[in-house]
């Protein structure tokens, strides 16, 4: 199975191969079972803005801070302060959520 192919939830639950490691060994979801309970911090960044301290101190209730993103642009999704994906804001019942639209592949150093 190619390592860059997305897997379905059913494939993960059935223990089918996740990827092949450098030694050619096939890895499954069961190989990761030891790390399943480790908590990670997930954050979704809608945008950023830079302000001077004097500007920050003048901000009051109802103030609007302009962000560096436009409406409809993808948001950044971080796991433990590392950019891992981009996505969109969605509404699930009465709560906000995110859906990943792009996975960011980075160096595994």
TrEMBL record:
UniProt subcellular location: Cell membrane; Bacterial flagellum basal body
Pfam families xref list: FliMN_C
Keywords: Bacterial flagellum, Cell membrane, Cell projection, Chemotaxis, Cilium, Flagellar rotation, Flagellum, Membrane
Membrane topology: Peripheral membrane protein
GO cellular component: bacterial-type flagellum basal body; plasma membrane
Coiled coil, from the record: none
Main location as per UniProt: membrane
GO biological process annotation, one example: chemotaxis
Keyword field contains Cell membrane: yes
Residue ranges occupied by any Flagellar motor switch protein FliN-like C-terminal domain in the UniProt entry: 34-104
InterPro entries: FliN (IPR012826), FliN-like_C (IPR001543), FliN/MopA/SpaO (IPR051469), FliN_T3SS_HrcQb (IPR001172), SpoA-like_sf (IPR036429)
Record bears the keyword Cell membrane: yes
Molecular functions per Gene Ontology: cytoskeletal motor activity
NCBIfam families: fliN (TIGR02480)
Summary of the function given for this chain in its UniProt record: FliN is one of three proteins (FliG, FliN, FliM) that form the rotor-mounted switch complex (C ring), located at the base of the basal body. This complex interacts with the CheY and CheZ chemotaxis proteins, in addition to contacting components of the motor that determine the direction of flagellar rotation.
Similarity-based family: Belongs to the FliN/MopA/SpaO family.
Protein name per the record: Flagellar motor switch protein FliN
């Amino acid at each position: 199975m190619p390592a860059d192919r997305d897997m379905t939830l059913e494939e993960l639950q059935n223990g089918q191969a996740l990827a092949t490691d450098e030694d050619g060994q096939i890895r499954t979801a069961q190989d990761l079972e030891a790390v399943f309970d480790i908590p990670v911090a997930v954050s979704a960044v809608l945008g950023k803005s830079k302000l001077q301290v004097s500007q920050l101190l003048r901000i009051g209730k109802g103030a609007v801070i302009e962000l560096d993103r436009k409406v409809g642009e993808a948001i950044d999704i971080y796991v433990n302060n590392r950019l891992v994906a981009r996505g969109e804001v969605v509404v699930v019942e009465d709560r906000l959520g995110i859906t990943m639209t792009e996975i960011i592949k980075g160096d595994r150093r």
